[in-house]
Amino acid sequence: xxxxxxxxxxxxxxxxxxxxxxxxxxxxxxxxxxxxxxxxxxxxxxxxxxxxxxxxxxxxxxxxxxxxxxxxxxxxxxxxxxxxxxxxxxxxxxxxxxxxxxxxxxxxxxxxxxxxxxxxxxxxxxxxxxxxxxxxxxxxxxxxxxxxxxxxxxxxxxxxxxxxxxxxxxxxxxxxxxxxxxxxxxxxxxxxxxxxxxxxxxxxxxxxxxxxxxxxxxxxxxxxxxxxxxxxxxxxxxxxxxxxxxxxxxxxxxxxxxxxxxxxxxxxxxxxxxxxxxxxxxxxxxxxxxxxxxxxxxxxxxxxxxxxxxxxxxxxxxxxxxxxxxxxxxxxxxxxxxxxxxxxxxxxxxxxxxxxxxxxxxxxxxxxxxxxxxxxxxxxxxxxxxxxxxx
Length: 391
Ligand SMILES: Cc1cc2nc3c(=O)[nH]c(=O)nc-3n(C[C@H](O)[C@H](O)[C@H](O)COP(=O)(O)O)c2cc1C
Known about the structure:
By secondary structure, this protein is an alpha+beta fold. Helices cover about 30% and strands about 20% of the residues. It has ten helices and 18 strands. The longest helix is centred in the C-terminal third of the chain and has 24 residues, at about 340-360.
């Protein structure tokens, strides 16, 4: 129903997102997308590339006069560095010799063709070369690169607006762990960021990269999104798949997740209680807002682990696929960590998934219709959610 496609290479002229299934009537402007993309560029451990490449965004279809019209929404994100890559990345043949380093004289040294025959462990480089029959990692890394996540964040910006406008859902996100720096309950954000900065400086000094844990919390998610009826209709399964589809994500948990392995059953579940106003609520949220694949009205909590960036300064042990010798992998200009930008990408994937499930439950034509269906549903379930309501 709500789905997105992305196209584009890391050093190509632009990234393209097509977001399909967003109903008519969502209020959205180009600036909303620019603001989301800006968040992806910030955070501890980001490097030079973020300073070079500014996101120039254009909505090409599906939005007129500040409102979606129900048709596919196409968004372009320009690559301002394209002039440095126009020959190598040209769709039409410019230079047929793969190993001619002069083909694009202003290309960074680390990107020269003969560097890319030493695949980086932890990236798609080697397996991509084998699978698609390429001579170097160029054609692999161009698409496998997480630059693609900018296109996802653009789609997520629209999904966030949609779910906020129909159900007041807010998708918050934060970094819980950055290498050895763990966010303490008593710590202010500033204190935690200072800890992260120290960890990043230390990693830089030692030529290291850093992974971590991110958390996404969606508030005001109504009861009833998703279902136990099939594997495909479960909200928890869809959220996990969406998160695991992001580059470098290696694990995901909903609610207390892995910690439930150490918890007795009496303490693992969320008692159903009436609060002092006679409204049904839960005494806790171990389930992370989802039971039996259905949202239960509590905040939806998704946590996930991001691996350390595999482009290590100096390169990890690898091979040269042309000389068949044991060498260090090529090392590209890279960040120290992807954890902070990854938290923004994770929130985008959660928003897109929730947008899809809202349309499945409440309809897909227009914001007005969805609001009306949502309102009628809220009234129908009231008698179960509040003592003494008679409908
Ligand atoms: C937002 C984001 C930014 C990333 N930036 C870099 C980077 O600058 N350098 C790098 O080597 N890997 C970076 N990565 C990680 C690679 O994309 C990832 O390691 C690669 O896709 C292979 O991991 P996978 O097999 O889990 O997809 C980034 C990942 C994300 C989510």
